[in-house]
Amino acid sequence: xxxxxxxxxxxxxxxxxxxxxxxxxxxxxxxxxxxxxARMLSLVFGSTNQAISTVLAVFMLGLALGSHAGAKxxxxxxxxxxxxxxxxxxxxxxxxxxPFILSNMEPIHxxxxxxxxxxxxxxxLYRFLIALVLLIIPTSLMGATLPVxxxxxxxDAGKAGSRIGILYAINTFGAxxxxxxxxxxxxxxxxxxxxxxxxxxxxxxxGLACIFLLRDTFMESAEKPLATSNKKxxxxxxxxxxxxxxxxxxxxxxxxxxxxxxIGMLLENAWSHALVLVFGxxxxxxxxxxxxxxxxxxxxxxxxxxxxxxxxxxxxLAGLLILDGLTILAIxxxxxxxxxxxxxxxxxxxxxxxxxxxxxxxxxxALMFLPTFIGGATFPLCLHIITRSRQNQSVSTGVSTSIxxxxxxxxxxxxxxxxxxxxxxxxxxxxxxxxxxxxxxxGAAVVLLGTKPQTSFRKVFAGxxxxxxxxxxxxxxxxxxxxxxxxxxxxxxxxxxxxxLEREMKNYDLIFYKEGSASVAVLESSLGHxxxxxxxxxxGSSEGDNTTQMLLGYLxxxxxxNTADALxxxxxxxxxxxxxxxxxxxxxxxxxxxxxxxxxAGFFSALNDRVFNDPRSTIRxxxxxxxxxxxxxxxxxxxxxxxxxWQTGNxxxxxxxxxxxxxxxxxxGGILCQxxxxxxxxxxxxxxxxxxxxxxxxxxxxxxxGTDTFLLSSMQPLEINxxxxxxxxxTSDVRKKFEDMHINTPGSLLSFYYLDNNSLQTMTLGxxxxxxxxxxxxxxxxxxxxxxxxxxxxxxxxxxxxxASSLRISDSELDTxxxxxxxxxxxxxxxxPDRVTEEMLRRSLN
Length: 846
Fold this sequence. Notes:
With 846 residues, the chain is an alpha/beta fold. The strands form two sheets. It has an eight-stranded mixed β-sheet with strand order 7-6-5-8-9-11-10-12, with helices on both faces. α8 (283-308) runs parallel beside α11 and α10 packs across α16. It is globular.
């Protein structure tokens, strides 16, 4: 048996099976917790890069501290099987209580946020402390399980590298299962809370099984030296000998574990930033990448523990680091060809969703497997050296395992923070990958130069490797940033071949590109039109999206009782905020989560100059939802225009919970204007968002422009102010913008009005559930329709319902028939078939 102990009495097969299942399920539950807790905390802290990095750092810090505590527990020499069982039970119990604990922490965070939002350092510190309070107990329990179970399985520290390496591989594979099952099964069909409950119950069951099945096995005290006996040494085969593991300096495996942890997180962050440009920002894209990453780590750990320990030496470790660095350098240019590959595979729009995910997983696995395999292999190799080091002969298995785990985790914390806050924002994800390769090569040179005996060849070779490490970040970049930002995961349907993609992207110049919390680009076409792209997808432009961006700014003005204070969530190009500033308002606050987007908005100055120069305008780089939920201020108009609801991070701005927060922050007679696109969306999901909005606001009107809809919502009855409607066309700046959109009269503006409150309620009668924070149906199910053809069913549903909608305006020039006649002009621009336009006119006149 692979986990059989080296003591005279082997563990029974039944207990080996229990241990394997226990640590497999433990890893699965731990990753599920990480996914769900991170999502829950993002609803409180926000989805900013700083908030996410803070949660991740606290999570890993807790694992490291827990591992240290677990090492102390393992030295007691008592029944470690029972201790392990109680750790699992305690973790499950805390998980069950987590939603309640978090809900009580929200008011504390809100108070702190409102007092410190303008100081990034103070806010980061407070969030770190809150996250520490929330996560330190469960993550410490998770971290403590490995050294405790390690000591239980293998009391001979000299053989820990093999058996504990296999144990760690099983746990990591369980984490891969947790990543997959939480994103693809548990959350989509049962929601966040039930995912926690499932994992918690599983933890408790594992704990109880260990308490009852492992209760009669007691370990001897590990305080005495665990050196191998003379008699045993005599019968060792060459394969089992120490080689030079005992001669390697104790600091060397510590250095390598820290380095590999750092490299691993640099790779994970950079791959995530790069691959979302190809696979998209849906929850499934992230889960696919994480699952492939963890499987590579698990496979490397298992293979090394089973087959590579006899060859462990400084030369072997240096060779692995060199292979790691060269592999990263070799596969990084391949990522630059992925947009063309994506178009070739999925450009015909015929692929089923599960086939899309499967092929994306295979692509991720092909790219990540060898670097992650090598990263995983270093853990048992370094643990083997630590346990056999002459400086560490008297240390128990649990303590040795803890040492290895802590230093590897410390490197991971360092890598995550450095990648997210320094390297990627400064030099981008491609150079981040190359820097990771350079660290591997540089680490290999250090290993070669730091051990004896030294030879001239070794020094020269180490110097050569170090030279490659220094020059690689300068000379090894190959990606075409324009092609990488082509947004193939959304737009591949428009390209029938790789050559078509090449021809299309040659029509654009990249005038701005920066990576950070997102990859943000500004492209300029040969006609001079500019497009803002976030993670490859167009989120605004100076042509094409103008009507949507401007209507979002002007429509709330027609309904709001007062117009003193306005809030715009999602700056984008800044055009919407600039339109609000055309109105008689006292203040306009624009909340943008990405500092890169704010910088990119400067390239649309011809259309948004007011946003940066008007004293009434304030731009805040914060999470819009966190701002609304935490600040006591109320508004007369709230305009929400995030990116699409299927995108992770933006999805929480399309839930009933967010609409409730927004409703509470409106003054009496205030208006929420919510942008909802219906392209690439199933009709049921579109109606689900509207139903969620109706669950908060009793009065809702729908306006539509092309494939974009605008939901004007209020707690009081909605009525268009005719005087303000006229005022818009009397204001020269506004009238000029309307004319650019071919809106020449108040009647043509009202042609964008479609559904009144009663028609919308009729339209959503069959919808019985809501899109909520705890059950985010749209985020998890709408990506399945992303690559399919645009379906006109939502448009026809809205058009059909519009015939029964009324608009109570006394002016005869603005009556219903006039609105329908004006629509004809826009339908030709929207490429609506003539037969549809003729049928609409016939029905409206009758």
